[in-house]
């Protein structure tokens, strides 16, 4: 009760067994909805006027069901906060996997003693997402890049939400979006492409790039760490992050190539031929796409850490040529992966899911 309602009541034993137990529960006059024992966090939560769930007071087996219960009860556009004694990031991936990309996860405190996260249920009526905006006009994607707004892994957020998280004046960004002046090299109109053609493009442009470049980056990294690892210990951390990223992407790409892309091509074939027999025998594409989006979120988090460690891939002033070249290749990998994720999250997957819905109806 304390975990779910907070310190808003008094508990007084009247009879203590052995046959009957009687307890008097009195609601405090100055009841606060907060459950955070840290005064500073109480003040912040009061200012935000949101409910704070202190996860540390909940029995372990009930933690996730309780959190999901609160999330499911949220109205669209509303939020609540979690207080925990360790990083609750695994919950983020579970929530994303089971509920989909319908929420915004914002860290308000990040340790070392307490972690506080605000979870907001997105409002689908809040306008186009940044991913949708970027998908329609590459010049506007350049505006987002200028302000550091993530339109690939974080593409499901509204412009207002994305700007609030970055502390940017939304009116300023909106003004630039109205008159984008940045010239872009690519003239590809991805939105006009059929899903099967776009899937082939992603494989040939991004998967093949990955398979060709990753061995070279690994060899170069080993050389740089061997020569400079003692002087720059952050290289070891960076290499661990890269290894984790590559391990996850290797599995991810195989799933795309063996499951998701063939499924998308089958959808397009069913549309063209009118034969839906093969489609009727298959489960929905929704769950595989959701798994891909969860993987994309995880990859985006690792890329963000790598960018922070490398000061946005700017090598030290005394870096040798190999060191500089390594950071250049890592930046290229980062940019290629973000473009890859953007094409899938914001164009390919929505088009494929819409097509599947039309065919099944």
UniProtKB/TrEMBL annotation:
<feature type="domain" description="DUF2249">
    <location>
        <begin position="53"/>
        <end position="121"/>
    </location>
</feature>
<dbReference type="InterPro" id="IPR019903">
    <property type="entry name" value="RIC_family"/>
</dbReference>
<dbReference type="GO" id="GO:0046872">
    <property type="term" value="F:metal ion binding"/>
</dbReference>
<keyword id="KW-0408">Iron</keyword>
<dbReference type="InterPro" id="IPR012312">
    <property type="entry name" value="Hemerythrin-like"/>
</dbReference>
<keyword id="KW-0963">Cytoplasm</keyword>
<dbReference type="GO" id="GO:0005737">
    <property type="term" value="C:cytoplasm"/>
</dbReference>
<dbReference type="Pfam" id="PF01814">
    <property type="entry name" value="Hemerythrin"/>
</dbReference>
<protein>
    <submittedName>
        <fullName>Iron-sulfur cluster repair di-iron protein</fullName>
    </submittedName>
</protein>
<dbReference type="Pfam" id="PF10006">
    <property type="entry name" value="DUF2249"/>
</dbReference>
<dbReference type="InterPro" id="IPR018720">
    <property type="entry name" value="DUF2249"/>
</dbReference>
<feature type="domain" description="Hemerythrin-like">
    <location>
        <begin position="215"/>
        <end position="352"/>
    </location>
</feature>
<keyword id="KW-0479">Metal-binding</keyword>
<dbReference type="Pfam" id="PF04405">
    <property type="entry name" value="ScdA_N"/>
</dbReference>
